Amino acid sequence: MTTVRQRRVGKGTEAAEDQPSEETNVKPDGKIPSDHTGGKLWNILSITVGGIVAISLGLLTSVYVATLHENDLWFSNIKEVEREISFRTECGLYYSYYKQMIQAASIQQGLHGLVYDNKTESVRTINILERMNVYQEVFLSILYRILPIQQYLEPVYFYIYTLFGLQAVYVIALYVTSWLLSGTWLSGVLAACWYITNRVDTTRVEFTIPLRENWALPFFAVQIAAITYLLRTHLQPAQERLTLLVIFIATFLFSLTWQFNQFMMLIQALALFILDCLDMLPTAKVTWLYIIQISGLLLVCVLQFFNSMILGSLLISFNTSVLIARTIQKNLKKGGLLNRLGKLILHALLVLCLTLLINKCIKKILNLESDEHIFKFLKAKFGFGATRDFDANLYLCEEAFGLLPLNTFSRLSATLLFYIYLFVLLLLAVAAVIVAFRNLSGSNQVQLMEKMEECTITLKPDAAYSLVHTVLFGCLALSTMRMKYLWTSHMCVFASFGLCSTEVWKLLLKCVHLYTSQRAQVLKYSVPIITLVYISYKFWPGIMDELSELREFYDPDTVELMNWIKSSTPSTAVFAGSMQLLAGVKLCTGRTLTNHPHYEDKNLRERTKQIYQIYARRSAEAVHGILRSFGTDYVILEDSICYERRHRRGCRLRDLLDVANGHIMDGVGENEPDLKPSLYPRFCEEIKKNLPSYTTHFTRVFQNKTFHVYKLAKHK
């Protein structure tokens, strides 16, 4: 098991608003007074200073996470094999393709090795570029090979520094989004500070560097910033076209770097759909965003050799359905309140039915089953019946796919982020409900609108999008802890925007009959500054202590195992074991695997379930037959899995296998009535007794405190 141990030491300024003022002071002779020139210079100065601050905070964040990574592992001092072991589970698998491309004799040979790969899954040749999102590793490896940096920078540092550099892009994008929403870069400073001080809940890049989300989320943040700008009014055609281009590029890069992109963009498309139905966004811009999502995903599909999972995504079906339904129903935004509500309900039902129909047809035509485990997991998670499906239960029992822990909110509250977020969310949600009601009521409700205007303001399109975005992604985070990073980063943006927004303070002060423009301006700047002072005072010492704490990587058992494999087994040997460990075996030794952690393939999932019979109650002969059917030469057994205590009864890997096989589980507790005792003992325990029925098929060739390696007999 990988661990770390204690190291042994031998006044705010505003950006220019997009909307023109209602009145422009012009002299009778047509000349603009000198105040206009002074205002322009002030805006240029404000944008320049704000931009410099944004870049500085982004770079500081990048250096911060890089320093934490170095301090935690002593990465610069440990051996190459230890560095590679530190890329745990699927991280190691992804990094192995970067290493493979670097070590290839040529770029062409490296690409050929990925397109015709026979070492990731034994007795199968697969296309890595089709199955996995590893174009970023390909691009980086090519860049490393052609740049004159080999003698100055090791490949691993080029890789991790790129990821840490993307954190700078991420923070800058969050900063700009908040700035665009509020109109002041002070809001961006607050968003960046919250992102850093809530690092535990906003990112995990420092210890899961190659994870796909660490590549993708910076591009997603850039896309959201560009959408925020697009939704402003009075954009010039050239500005709008340039913004759409930025959105397309960011969407494409986000889709290219993460296999779960389609689900995140489906939530985004749902937000656009809701706001468009409520007449809170311009329909033409929403249509462009739908088209960009589809085209970006289809371009990725082409690059991934027409990956069927992309073609069968719900996003493509949903966006296509919305565009079709809108063509069929042309008068959605006409009529009174009840008339429009009826039309919208029919519209939503039509879109839902079309989405399911189109998606079903695509999957039927393509015989697509790659993502069925996700829907089985969702069905079981939300209580639509218990399941014995091994894959679904494997997800259900992982903490990362469980509900968001309550202690998350206590950590977010310590920085005041969660309290302010709820405050802003409540205010804007009330405003959104009122605005939506006014929009749906139609033009005949003028008096009602005027009455409501006394206590509220119109919600701008960019703020409305940000509100629905944070609500939907908040629901996702609450239901699935692993997805919290999509929510918490935007939470920083949303809370800082609300605290620095004139509109939000105007809304609040009007509702309590205390509104004056001077009060709104004072609160807009004073409250964020006080919040920043509080955060700095409370968390700066802790950050300094964190940066001064030195540890080092320590995992001697895994290091010993990898060194033994490299020195004592043929380079063509095939290894079986847990998905997580085998990813490290491929990275550190280059040996062929039977299975791996990239789970988005039905054949691989079935293969993994078969390989995992080494931890079930099966006979030696049956296990040997299964392993040899995949060409296995060696099998690695882990005590941490065989005698697992991390999960509760019913969620241990051996329990999932027992239930899937129809056997009763170990230990005290209830079992379902139709489960029966197995005729055989647990394989991973019984093999260590060296009984003749086991030694006939398996010979132990390596052992330490954590791992046991057995060589399989090759019977004719």
From TrEMBL:
Gene Ontology CC: one annotated term: nuclear inner membrane
Q: Which organism is it from?
A: Xiphorhynchus elegans
**Cellular location of this protein?**
Membrane
List all Basic and acidic residues biased stretches: 24-34
Q: Write down the CDD domains for this protein, in alphabetical order.
A: Dpy19L3
The Swiss-Prot or TrEMBL record describes its family as follows: Belongs to the dpy-19 family.
Protein name stated in the entry: D19L3 mannosyltransferase
Q: Major location, coarse class? A: membrane
Chain spans, region Disordered: 1-34
Q: Which UniProt keywords apply?
A: Glycosyltransferase, Membrane, Transferase, Transmembrane, Transmembrane helix
Mark out the compositionally biased spans (Basic residues): 1-10
Membrane topology label: Multi-pass membrane protein
Residue stretches in coiled coil: none
- Residue intervals passing through the bilayer: 41-66, 179-197, 217-235, 242-258, 264-281, 312-329, 341-358, 416-441, 462-481, 487-509, 521-540
